[in-house]
Write a structure and sequence with these properties.
heterodimer; A: mainly beta; 5-stranded mixed beta sheet; 2 helices; about 10% helix; B: alpha+beta; Signal peptidase complex subunit (chain A)
């Protein structure tokens, strides 16, 4: 009854139970934190051209390049159980048939880690006003995911290039009306449930204020009037470049 | 040690075996029950690759829910590539269809610069929500799944663990 094996088993069993209870408490306690996210998202420019937007595109199709302004304050989403926030901006537009919901595509995303999370090279580096994007390589190790003097969750972008172009399944996206640009997030906890954007309020969690902009896709622009640099996308910090892992 | 097994009466031995079988079948029932509750063929998965870092690292345990058939952009889904049995955990970046048409999704790992079009089967450009997706991630526990990765990468660990468990069961009944 008192052999070492039994003692070790008891200690290990107790450790497991306590760890499980603490994890459950941490996961549930997130409901007590108060959240007041707010954002202002504005479309700056949208162009629709014909070309091959993806590395795997076999035929020319219409794609849209959207530039936007973003001023987001998601600092209240960072509580004791937040490991990182995945922010993303999507564009959605009505589908051609009334019985089919609107298609949606991500045009920009950023991984904002909490200050307590260990460093990972794939996290977002917020552009600062002092450094132009050309000296990105020098600043990659020192860049923070938020502007100088701010805290994680504050994002201020002006005339930001998208990371991905928007294409439609049919290959045509010009002159589509009633499109919406909206900001979303996904809170990744240290342990527990993942949560996504809430526009409604639940107890201490207020819904997102703002973060939506409506626009129409313009008509197709000829290739002579568009400069190649205008259609360049933002390069993300993803570690695996080339073929997906 | 072997004398202790010989001194076990057949009834005790049978009770032991039955106990063991009961534990195994309870575990199996719980697993299958969870499968039915979540409507997913594999309701708990272990992250195998680093393509979703820093959100999910290798060895993290994910809890899936497969009853939300209207998967939104930004959700993290686990899917099987057609013809292969390897589950991949990536985020949905594009969707179209749904309603009266089958919902089609494009996924991309957070740590991959490119989306998953190259990972899909030949001729497949998108995932079909009803056919390819095993479930959507709703909860997560870090690190505890690393044991399964060790077991699959070092097969001798499996036999060692089973042998150890059998040994403790036998020795405990003294």
């Amino acid at each position: 009854m008192h052999s070492s094996l039994v003692r070790i088993q008891n200690v290990f069993g107790y450790f497991t139970s306590v760890a499980f209870a603490v994890a459950a408490a941490v996961a549930v306690s997130v409901l007590l934190s108060s959240q007041t996210p707010s954002a202002s998202l504005e479309l700056k420019n949208v162009q629709v051209v014909k070309g091959r937007p993806h590395y795997y595109s076999t035929k020319r199709e219409e794609y849209a390049h959207v530039k936007f302004d973003l001023d987001a304050d998601l600092t209240s989403l960072f509580n004791w159980n937040t490991k990182q926030i995945f922010m993303y901006i999507t564009a959605s537009y009505p589908s051609t048939s009334p019985s089919i919901p609107p298609p949606e595509a991500v045009i920009w995303d950023a991984i904002i880690p909490s200050d307590h999370a260990p460093f990972h090279p794939n996290t977002y580096i917020h552009p600062t006003s002092k450094t132009p994007s050309k000296s990105k390589s020098k600043n990659k190790s020192k860049g923070k995911p938020y502007p100088e003097g701010a805290s994680p969750g504050i994002v201020k972008l002006s005339n930001q290039k998208p990371k991905y172009q928007i294409t439609d399944f049919s290959g045509k996206i010009a002159e589509r009306e009633n499109a919406t640009l909206s900001l979303h997030w996904n809170v990744q906890p240290w342990v527990g449930a993942l949560v996504w954007t809430n526009t409604n309020s639940y107890g201490r969690w207020s819904g997102l204020k703002g973060g939506v902009d409506k626009f129409d896709f313009p008509s197709l622009k000829g290739s002579e009037t568009i400069k190649k640099e205008d259609l360049k996308t933002e390069t993300g910090a993803e570690k695996n470049r080339g073929s997906p892992a | 040690m072997f004398s202790s097994i010989a001194s076990l009466q057949p009834r005790q031995l049978a009770a032991q075996v039955l106990n063991f079988a009961l534990v195994l079948s309870t575990a199996f029932m719980l697993w299958k029950g969870l499968s039915v509750f979540t409507n997913s063929s594999s309701p708990i998965v272990v992250v195998l690759s680093g393509s979703m870092e820093p959100a999910f690292e290798r060895g993290d345990l994910l809890f899936l829910w497969n009853r939300g058939m209207d998967t939104q952009v930004g959700e993290i889904v686990v899917y099987n590539v057609r013809g292969k049995d390897i589950p991949i955990v990536h985020r949905v970046v594009r969707r179209f269809g749904g309603g009266s048409a089958p919902l089609q999704l494009l996924t991309k790992g957070d740590n991959n610069a490119a989306d998953d079009t190259e990972l899909y089967a030949r001729g497949q450009d998108y995932l079909e929500r009803s056919k390819d997706v095993v479930g959507s991630v709703v909860g997560y526990v870090p690190f505890v799944g690393y044991v399964t990765i060790l077991l699959s990468e070092y097969p001798w660990l499996k036999t060692a663990m089973l042998g150890f468990m059998a040994l403790t069961v036998v020795l405990q009944r003294e």
